[in-house]
Every structure is written in structure tokens, then in C-alpha cells.
Please model this.
Amino acid sequence: MKILVVDDDELIRELLVEILTAHGYEDVTQAESGEDGLEKIQVAAQPFDCFMFDIQMPGKDGIELCGDVRNMVQYKDTPVVMITAMNNQDYIGRAFSAGATDYVTKPFDTTELITRIRLADRLQAETKRASQAAVTAQAKPKPPFSEPIAITEIRGFVNSAILENYVLINLEQKHFPLAAVAINIPELSAVHAGSSEGEFTYVLTDIAEVLADLLCGAQAFMSYVGNGTFLCVGNRHKIPATSEMQSDLIVMLNDPDLVYCDEVQTSFTALVGEKSAPKLFEKREDLRFLNRALESLSEAGAANPGARAKKLGDRLGVPFAA
Model:
């Protein structure tokens, strides 16, 4: 794996190189500033497989550099691990919003750092396999309705692996009380059946933008998990009440200036589950509250939420009992 380390502290850069090399990651390039890092990315003969950016640097900081990287087509899914002494929620939220994949703090634990790099290595390998499969499957039918779809360019929307990392970091550092809420849009089944893959993705993206606007005050991160269902995680005290969110969503979803659906004529409804928070007796790395949020959709009338919960649990490595 080819790694670029960007940090204005020479000692930190050298320490990172030593740790990475000792654990088998020998192809490491160093940059002493955001500007230097961006130049090395632009002139690289072979693309990088992973980035490690310090947040607090003079000039172009790590968050700005992360945004620059995400604007490059070849790096839109490349893992970005932020390394910084800053561990407050504002920096974490800004880093993930800019497209960061993971986050560790200085002074860092070597075992934790290598664990994060190995996760990045796995994510990169999975991304490459997915890209190759997409090329192979160009002539095949559109993906089934049950499959998750990555939503890009909408603030707060990440894939399930990044959502998991965001949750784990917040649970570990206790920045604010977390809660998850699941939202199902039943009419998306008909939209999927009656539209092209591109049109369905456009409608999903419009709905994602509505959710991002609705939850902008809740410091929320979200993921589309398939079957018309979105999973949202944010500040427990700032996520709107279920009834309020449901009524606001229905109004916003049926505003053609917000959600445009041309190929299938439909009126949208919304099913919002109850907020689910980690329980006091659960360990910090326990993510079962995400499954509980999905399960709660059954009380709101969503079809087969248990299967969705098990599927998400399987993807995240979380035990699920039906």
C-alpha cells in the first residue's frame, strides 16, 4: 500500500515512517505541509492508496487538504486518516464532513494506529474490487432495491464503514450523547422498479439533501442502507422528535423543488422510527443501538426491518438476534 504522510512536524513524520515500516508498510512518502502534500499528490507517477493528514498545519491545513483530495476523481474513495492532537467534536465533525475515513489523536497508541491503517488497507482493497466489479457489470441489470448505495456530495452522508468509525470515535471520546434514528421512504420501491439506475440515484440524492437539511443542527452523519431506508446518527438531544421529523419530511419530500422524480409519478410518505441510544450497560464499542433503530421501523409500519437490521449488523460485524 502506497501511503502519503503530511505533517509539519518532522519528528512526527519520521516516527510514523518508522512505525509503518516496522509493520510492513514500506512505501511511505512524506510531505511537510498541505501545499507540499498537494504537489506530491499531483505529480505522483502512481496513485496513493492511503493518506495520513495532520489537521493543524500552517497554510493549508489537513481538513482543507482532505477536501482537495476528495475533489479528485481518482481519490474520491481513497482512505484518509486524520492524525492530530485536536480531539474535540468540532474537529472530528469537520474532518468527516470533508471526507475523512478515520481519525486518531496524538500522542497515539501504536496498536490503535496500525489497526486504523489495516482498516484503511481493507477499505482500499474493497473499493478496488467494487470498481472492477462495476466495470464488469456495466451490461448487467441495475442493482436490487435491497442493496445500499453510496451517496456522495451531500454533507453528512458516508458509507456504512465510515459511519461505524464515526460512531466508535464518538463513543470512545464521549463528545456528546449519541442516538440513531432510521427513516424509511416506502415509495422508493416503486421509484426503483419504474426508473433507470441513474434516475433512482438522483431521487435518492435529493432525499439525502432533504435529510441533511432537516438534521443540520443535530451534528448527524447518515448512510443509505438499502430498501428505501436511511440510518442517521447524531446528538441525541438535537435530533428532532419522531412526529415532528415525520411531518416535516413529508412536506419537504413532496416539494418538487427539493425532490424531483420525473420517471415515476408518486407522492412521498415517510416512516420514522424511534430514537435509539446506547444503553448504560453496553460497552463503548457495542453498536447494537444502530440495529435497534432499524428494528423500531416495524412499529412505524416499515416492511421487514428486522432483515435490514441483520444485514447491516452483518456488514458492520455487529451481532444481531432476530
Notes: The chain is about 45% helix and 15% strand. The first helix runs from residue 10 to 22. The longest strand covers residues 178-184.
